[in-house]
Design a protein that fits this description.
The complex is a heterodimer of chains A (about 350) and B (about 180).
Chain A lengths: L12 H22 L10 H12 L11 E11 L16 E10 L15 E7 L5 E7 L9 H10 L11 H10 L4 H9 L11 E2 L4 E4 L5 E10 L16 H12 L2 E9 L19 E14 L19 E3 L3 H21 L13
Antiparallel strand pairs in A: 1-2, 1-9, 2-3, 3-4, 5-7, 6-7, 6-10, 7-8, 8-9
Helix pairs in contact in A: 2-3, 2-7
Chain B lengths: L8 H24 L6 H29 L11 H31 L4 E4 L2 E3 L7 H36 L5 H4 L6
Antiparallel strand pairs in B: 1-2
Helix pairs in contact in B: 1-2, 2-3, 3-4
The chains are: A alpha+beta (about 350), B mainly alpha (about 180).
Chain lengths: ~350, ~180
């Protein structure tokens, strides 16, 4: 250190202070931009979840989408057929326990089961080595849109009009008109009826993923859970019954386990890997990878699925995300929704209290 | 300058290496939760293992710092600045160690796999508990802001020593010669 007496005041003190101020302010601005506070136009997880909340209403403690559902438990038993395509132990001839959740889309946990024609199935496979595979599947052939921005715009365009409680047809129509990618989904939705049972549905991964084999080679796939349970007659629930899915499921499980087959479908040349709004042709190579056995159910308010974030990017070695832009958006938005509902459960300062008794 | 007026070369090397890592970490963290774009995924994949590397280096650094005292601050430095200097350094050490632990604990409480790379993951350090997850997740956010503010003060003070006071404090970490 220098002696105080020998130190002369530096020249251009003003400029020196300005330089210091610039360094500090510049760092702060860079941080503010990266963190999004200075980039309000960026599509953030918060914006997406806010848009879901705006459409589904405020229901503290619940998921912001697929809010109504039921926990299920069981196991997946691989048959070894996928082992040459993926190095994951989940495909070996062994049982992997699963924590699952069957649900309907939408942010309202009290919605009538008949309010939407779509059912969803989320699963967490707990591998023996501590790895996890989480997937959120939907019983529909394709996703309505290709990008997170379009998904957000769809939520905004279908926001219920406060007067009618229904989306404004003009706004929704304008959205679909300007998004031709929605054609495949709309074509399916036109004739889709709300199914009477979770058990008879085929649940699709919708997004594409890669399987990586032990030699390091990867192949693009989509998967689906195909039910063993046949559809029985029309199965129409009694008029006025808005919760028939849960009672149907508990009745079926009381009689015995329900089974699905995990069918892995491989992309052909030119099939879109990054566009969940486009279906792949039916003739693509498919492999039956094993059987999912569901043998128990629990209420979602007390069951083990309640506090699971079914983030589809949580994957074991041997399964990888694709470039589908919806995957990262699902991961980011699910994390935001998960933090909101766990904050509400944990009574964090500023978080809304869950109204319903748990 | 005599030898004991600069930090040990090992301490300086750790300081500059970790300054890059910690700053990257703060920007990665702020960026990854601000966006739904694909970078969310790969930033998150970097964030976890980098945090653990910082944690290990911070422990080594703390042990080294406790056995190798820092050069003394200039005798004429006002008392409040001395207190601020010591306090901010304690805070920086505490945050370098606490932030990775909170991140690790938060993923444990949320029952997420604490993935490093491939199938390599760390064990859980806390039981699954959603309320605990939420507390830790929010702590991680607010302490990150505190970390960044402390970094700004630290950088501003270092530049003040180097450009205004020119008292050799900045050079004790850069290893350069103090201006006359």
């Amino acid at each position: 250190m220098q002696d105080t007496e020998n130190r002369r005041p530096p020249a251009h003190v003003g400029w020196r202070w300005a330089l210091i101020g610039l360094a500090v302010a510049g760092s702060a601005v860079a941080f503010g931009y990266v963190g999004g506070w200075l980039a309000p136009e960026r599509l953030s997880p918060k914006k997406i979840v806010d848009s879901l909340e705006a459409n589904g209403g405020a229901h503290p403690g619940y998921r912001r989408n697929h809010a109504k559902g039921i926990c299920v438990g069981g196991y997946f038993e691989g048959n070894g057929a996928l082992q040459s395509f993926s190095s994951s132990a989940v495909f070996a001839k062994e049982r992997t326990p699963v924590v699952g959740r069957l649900a309907i889309p939408g942010g309202n946990p009290y919605a009538a089961d008949s309010s939407v024609p779509i059912r969803s199935f989320a699963l967490r496979f707990d591998l023996a080595d501590g790895e996890q595979w989480r997937t959120g599947m939907n019983a529909m052939p394709v996703f309505p849109v290709s990008t997170p921005q379009a998904f957000y715009d769809l939520q905004v365009a279908t926001h219920p009009d406060p007067k009618t409680g229904k989306p404004d047809p003009a706004k929704a129509g304008a959205f679909f008109g300007s998004h031709p990618e929605t054609g495949a989904f709309l074509g399916w939705a036109k004739t889709a009826k709300p199914p009477a049972s979770y058990a008879t549905e085929t649940y699709q991964s919708i997004n594409a993923f890669y399987l990586r084999d032990s030699a390091g080679e990867r192949r693009a796939v989509r998967w689906k859970m195909v039910p063993e349970t046949p559809e029985t007659g029309d199965g129409s629930p009694a008029a006025g019954d808005t919760d028939y899915l849960a009672s149907d499921l508990s009745k079926r499980l009381a009689a015995g386990p329900l089974r699905w087959h995990l069918i892995m479908t491989f992309a052909g040349d030119g099939d879109p890997i990054d566009d969940a709004a486009k279906a792949w042709p039916d003739d693509r190579k498919s492999v039956d990878a094993g059987t999912l056995v569901i043998d128990s159910w629990q209420d979602q308010a007390t069951g083990p699925c309640r506090d699971v974030n079914y983030d589809p990017t949580i994957l074991p070695k041997g399964i990888e995300t694709s470039n589908d832009p919806l995957l990262a958006a699902r991961s980011a938005a699910y994390a935001d929704s998960y933090l909101r509902r766990t904050s509400e459960e944990g009574h964090l300062p500023g978080a809304a209290r869950p109204k319903e008794a748990k | 300058m005599s030898r004991d007026q600069t930090f040990h070369p090992f301490a300086r090397a750790l300081h500059w290496l970790m300054s890059i890592m910690v700053l990257s970490m703060l920007f990665i963290g702020a960026g990854m939760v601000s966006t739904v774009a694909e970078k969310h995924d790969w930033l998150l994949a970097i964030h976890r293992p980098l945090g653990i590397v910082i944690f290990v280096l911070a422990l080594i650094r703390l042990a080294f710092r406790l056995t190798h005292p820092a050069p003394p601050l200039p005798a004429d430095l006002p008392l409040w600045q001395k207190l601020a200097a010591h306090g901010s350094h304690v805070l920086l050490y505490a945050l370098m160690i606490a932030m990775p632990l909170i991140g690790w604990g938060m993923l444990s409480a949320g029952n997420y796999p604490v993935t490093m790379f491939g199938s390599v993951h760390l064990p859980k350090i806390l039981p699954t508990d959603p309320a605990l997850f939420a507390w830790l997740r929010e702590s991680h956010r607010y302490l990150a802001w505190l970390f960044f503010l402390t970094f700004l003060a630290h950088m501003g003070a270092a530049l003040m020593h180097g450009l205004i006071r020119r008292d050799g404090v900045l050079q004790s970490m850069t290893g350069g010669k103090a201006p006359r």
